[in-house]
User: Fold this.
Amino acid sequence: MHIFPAALLLLLSTAYAAITGGRSDRTVSPALFADLEEAARLADIAYCVGISGIWKPFGCLSRCGDFEGFELVDTWNTGPLRSDSCGYVALDHVKKRIVVAFRGTYSLASVWADLATTPQVYVPYPEPPPPPPHPPKSSKPRRRGWWGWVPWIGGGGQQDILATAVGDGDGDGDRQGDERLVCTNCTVHAGFLTTWTHTRPYLLPHLTRLPPHLPSYTIHLIGHSLGGALAALAGLELRARGVEVVVTTFGEPRIGNAGLVGYLDSVFGLEEEGEKGTGEGEGGGERFRRVTHKGDPVPLLPLEEWGYAMHGGEIYISRPTIPVGEGDVEMCVGDADVRCIAGADEGGVVVDAEALAVDGTVVDEASWRVPGRFRVGQILFAHRDYFWRVGLCVPGGDPAGWGGRGWYGGEGGGGGGGSGNAGGGDEL
Assistant:
């Protein structure tokens, strides 16, 4: 007698799962989807810095016209000899936000240069360095003598310039963070940290002076690729200073080891996120949203075998092509949910390697497993396809109609159709 109701219930549940893609408990809300899509456009605008530029009140060749009520505060460009960090600071008077957008990496060669470096110890509260005689006051690079470009010499040079708590603000009085915070056994990617130390003198004066005058505005840090790594490190520093921030990254690489990951998860409250958290996983997403994309290899780099790990806050775009819909964007659980980007790390190519010493810890792996499907097309397309084709700084953002071109597994999508790997099939 109960067979028919049970069968009907099973049929309805199956139909509902088919309509929603079987992941209704993981799909992001419409509000979060819209927020992430908007953040992708703001990240795209950062690529105009250093090319055609961004001008006041808020204009550029890319998507600046989409953002009425935005006011440009400043742009910065540290120059190619100082890690080539670019970006902008703007005020959003509609949503009451201070937006800081970090530009990502332009060239394929730079991608690997960004990733090919050893980690170093991460200290949340090092002693600040002495202030420079002429601190930067503008985003425009100044002319300087050749000695201004000489890199730090000696083993302690890089450590001496670290200042991840104070030093560029108005003094110790603005430090509101908990100085008892300790990052135990933490290492960070040395290249990312060096780039941040070159960037922070351009940003911290703004982020120190603006909030007191705009107390109702929240600080939003946004970045793609290398810019995502910088946004993460900037967010850690600002949280250590007691400043509330929202961080959104796209295609962010691994920035440090398991110790740093645990520290970041704790600082941003990401330990109990995903399906086990509140709001169907969007509780932690209010503070740190680490967006990854199917087929993008950069979030899997540097390799886990080299001592690096992914942190929490992941939101996964499961559709391999753009455009994407709300049902294609899913909340993930923990630091390495195998249903998300970590699942792409299961296969790979085994290569021989010698034992590697990282900060005195010997990684005596006989071989390292390089994640599979690392193709040029994935760097050129998958790594840039976050809601839009990010990183072009042209009117409309995608002049060649690449928005629907398939680059992963021969799939086409969106309005462009097409098939095959758009970027070729060369292994990296």
